[in-house]
Design brief:
By secondary structure, this protein is α/β, with parallel strands linked by helices. It contains 7 helices and 11 strands.
Length: about 220
């Protein structure tokens, strides 16, 4: 099986693809690939390329495009995760697993019971790290697109960000009336093209937050 890479679209040309940075280091030092090797490369925007490595230097690797195919491996429904900020580095593992499960967007949400408080430069640095983790997880599970990790938002801001007609699912321990089967078999869910899953932090969501989320969905 060919080794897989994901590169920014601007590194994909009409006939060749350029690999640089940490991907180049992985290609050279870990995989020890040489000219003549076959690799697959995704541009993260819907295309996958089969390439023949033509050149490998300390600055870049160049692959000649042998075949280009549309990416049809993504779920037909856009999955969005609204995740209440958990303690410590737990969100890193959540992002890894969300990537493996096909989530398209991760929205870190500052909820009332979130112990972690992020803002300003600290929040920006954390989001950059989370996005890098999502990209590495996508490569590891051979997914052709990494989820977009959005800036930290309030719950109201995250709900406003959702596309129109998004179906919103809130697993809540205090819900007594409706079960998951009833929700997923409702007409609105059968027609949904985008699904948002809202998960609270360790302390769960408040009743007001649940009402706010359900009003949106």
């Amino acid at each position: 099986m060919a080794h897989h890479f994901i590169v920014p679209p601007e590194q994909v040309g009409a006939e060749e693809i350029v690999i640089t940075g940490s991907d180049l280091e992985h290609l050279v030092r870990v995989l020890r690939l040489k000219p003549g090797a076959i690799i697959t490369v995704s541009d993260g925007r819907g295309w996958v390329y089969r390439c023949l490595l033509q050149q490998v230097t300390k600055d870049k690797a160049v692959g000649l495009i042998q075949e280009a195919c549309p990416d049809d491996s993504e779920p037909p429904i856009r999955l969005m995760l609204l995740q209440g900020l958990p303690k410590g580095d737990k969100l890193e593992l959540i992002i890894q697993k969300a990537t493996e499960l096909g989530v398209a967007d991760v929205l870190p949400v500052a909820m009332e019971r979130s112990v972690v408080k992020l803002s300003g430069e600290k929040a920006g640095n954390r989001v950059t790290r989370w996005q890098r983790i999502a990209l590495e997880a996508a490569k590891q599970c051979r997914r052709n697109r990494a989820p977009v990790v959005h800036p930290v938002m309030t719950l109201a801001g995250a709900l406003d960000f959702l596309p129109p007609a998004t179906a919103v699912l809130v697993p809540w321990e205090d819900e007594k009336a409706r079960g998951l089967r009833e929700v997923l078999t409702s007409p609105a869910w059968k027609e949904a093209r985008t699904v948002a899953l809202v998960i609270g932090p360790e302390g769960g969501m408040t009743g007001a937050e649940v009402e706010l989320a359900l009003a949106r969905g």
